[in-house]
Specification:
434 Repressor (Amino-terminal Domain), 3-stranded antiparallel sheet, 3-stranded mixed sheet, CBS-domain, about 40% helix, alpha+beta
Length: about 200
């Protein structure tokens, strides 16, 4: 790493001392940007550069000026403190069902909590989900008898996407465009759930 004079901009993992700052590598800038949940275009707009410049810096194909790096680092630092993470907006505890649950009891759970889909979790690990549309589809295909004693594994769909508690809101919102919910996992276990309502509530 090169060392330049600085006014003390803080950068995670970069040590500042004696009014000097170690310049972050291209890989560290990319890692910091991804952790902040920002796209190259978003960083470019806020820092006042082109997206291609950010891409070249991250690829290590250009040797940027110190002032350029300081502006990029400042944008990433500000983003890290201003953008909420999954841990900030998730709902807990998670309403879920086990794979052995009957469809009838699953419907009761969904009606009780006013939800249209519910994750299927086994030993803290998500293995699928059940939605109202899946239940209706099974009824149309006569997979469900009036007794509804079938278990959810008979109609279980693909599970929700998962993120870590530190994931920023931008990629979560993107995932919610195609999924009912996003599960938050920590140390291999589900600890929270995020829906579109949780993201919208953050704005109020």
């Amino acid at each position: 790493m090169r060392i330049i004079s600085s006014k003390g901009i803080l950068f995670s993992g970069i040590i500042t001392y004696n009014n000097n700052m170690q310049i972050p590598t291209s890989g560290e800038i990319r890692e910091k940007r991804i952790k902040a949940g920002m796209t190259q275009s978003a960083v470019a707009i806020q820092a006042g550069f082109s997206q291609s410049m950010i891409a070249r810096i991250e690829a290590g194909t250009v040797d940027p000026r110190a002032s350029t790096l300081r502006r990029i680092v400042a944008v990433l630092n500000e983003s890290e403190t201003s953008y909420p993470s999954a841990d900030d907006i998730m709902t807990r505890p998670v309403i879920s069902i086990s794979p052995e649950e009957s469809i009838k009891n699953t419907v009761d759970v969904m009606e009780k909590y006013g939800i249209s889909q519910v994750p299927v979790i086994k030993n803290g690990v998500p293995i699928g989900c059940v939605s109202e549309s899946a239940i209706i589809g099974a009824m149309e295909n006569e997979m469900i008898h009036h007794s509804m004693k079938n278990t959810v594994t008979d109609i279980m769909e693909e599970g929700f996407p998962t993120v870590s508690p530190s994931e920023k809101i931008e990629p979560i919102v993107h995932s919610l465009q195609n999924h009912h919910a996003v599960l938050v996992m920590d140390k291999g276990k589900v600890v929270g759930v995020i829906t579109k309502h949780d993201c919208i509530r953050r704005l109020s």
